[in-house]
Amino acid sequence: MSKERISGSEALMRSLEHEGVKTIFGYPGGAIMPVFDALYDHRDKLNHILVRHEQGAAHAAQGFARVSGEVGVCLVTSGPGATNTITGVADAMIDSTPIVVIAGQVGAGLLGTDAFQEVDLVGITQPISKWSYQIRRAEDVAWAVSRAFYIARSGRPGPVVLDFAKNAQIDMTDFEPMKVDFIRSYDPDPETDPKALAEAVALINESKKPLVLVGQGVELGNAQQELRAFVEKADIPCGCTLLGLSALPTSHPLNKGMLGMHGNLGPNVKTNECDVLIAVGMRFDDRVTGKLETYAKQAKVIHLDIDPSEIGKNVPVDVPVLGDCKRTLALLTELIQSNTHTEWINSFASYEETEYTRVIEKEVHPSSGPLNMGEVVRAVSEATENKAILVTDVGQNQMMACRYFKYSQNRSVVTSGGMGTMGFCLPAAIGATFGAPQRTVCAFMGDGGLQMTMQELGTIMEQKAPVKIILLNNNYLGNVRQWQAMFFNRRYSFTPMMNPDYKQIASAYGIPFRRVAEREDLNEAIREMLTTDGPFFLEACVIEEGNVLPMTPPGSSVNYMMLDLDC
Prior knowledge:
The chain is of the alpha/beta class. It has three domains: about 5-175, Rossmann fold (3-Layer(aba) Sandwich); about 195-345, Rossmann fold, CATH 3.40.50.1220; about 370-540, Thiamin diphosphate (ThDP)-binding fold, Pyr/PP domains (Rossmann fold, 3-Layer(aba) Sandwich), CATH 3.40.50. About 40% of the residues lie in helices and about 15% in strands. It has 24 helices and 20 strands. Helix 3 (about 55-70) crosses helix 19 (about 425-435) and helix 9 crosses helix 14 (about 325-335).
């Protein structure tokens, strides 16, 4: 059978379809125009979503990937079009999100001449991507695309960047789809050492006070059921990282809450009391560990991870269990003894009661005063029967949303973890509506983050994307303000923020809007938002100088959590 002779641009379209791609987020321009011309004839199979800024394309691809488990794709032009995606690429790298960024580039003959909108995209993105490659020949398109998707979705997922020279888009090639499923020296799922497995089993069986740390790797590996089977058989309490929050339902009796700087009191304190610490698909980042010199020194540490580079990177590990956690958790569950740790689990109760009395009750059920962020979040969560996808921006809104939203389904948390990217929420929420169209997407953001990517309201308008926008408006860059109050004697240096009239902005984009400032109006406003078809913009006017608590101050031990502020 003879191969069909087609252009490099057409080869890209067919290669994307061969990978199962149905949705692309992008923005056209000169150096990628032949690809967009080819896309015109594939509109029946490839749904292109026109964003309003290339950063929005990258974040939308992330949101799509996080909720769907598929690879997100964005398509942009060269120069500033490509560099505008960099924040999204870096964000996807540190949060292990599989996306493929395809950017136009000047023709191969012009490379190195400082041609119009030429930039060394491969050089820029190599440190912040799993693979970055420049396609200079049409005949390389099928191979490069297949390799890109294989790398992006396999092992520890992450971003891949394809820099597509214009001559390769136009030139003709004999095309046939390719399937790359092996790369020499790349081991996406390392073999599990039986000896390590046996050592882990022995430690778990002998432990009196074990604690499991649940990371996003459980979600990425689709190992949610395996996790439940493991912790239920061994009767081990769990703390969840920010990105791992929905891997175990909030209501599960072994789920003791969120880890980290603004996490729950119990799991943070108990980290420094447990005798065996079992980390599953998480990296010991500074927001989780606090002061490394005092972190879990009393515990034997077992680390289950697919990425060998994470083992021992920050926290010394006694037993490394390499491999896909869907497999390694199942192996452990099969080998460990059934157990009970009633006394140990019950010891969390006093911390839960203390946190509820001193922090949660006042935040979620205030008797008077302005609206709190936490009560708005909890009210929205309950109104969705805790089944919605939570998308957040970064700052106080992020911590409050992740703390007080409840999760009953997998892949329900979309937020910028390692990069802390303000402006992430709105485009990521758009992507989430395409990745999980059957689910409600609730996007919580602050007035600072919203205004960084507010232009994507245009994408919502055009696509009628059913994003439920909840703006927690405190007229401050709230998280920075809180730190200024705590550590800089309330010197609010450029954190008060003048806001526009969001009602007028929503109206300009044809998005239904409601503003709520009174507690008695909150539930009705949420009901209106959730019963309105398509997008909705709910502005909640919340307390201006609210604080996220508890808090482990930077440089402090993880078990030292402030429950109130004197400042």
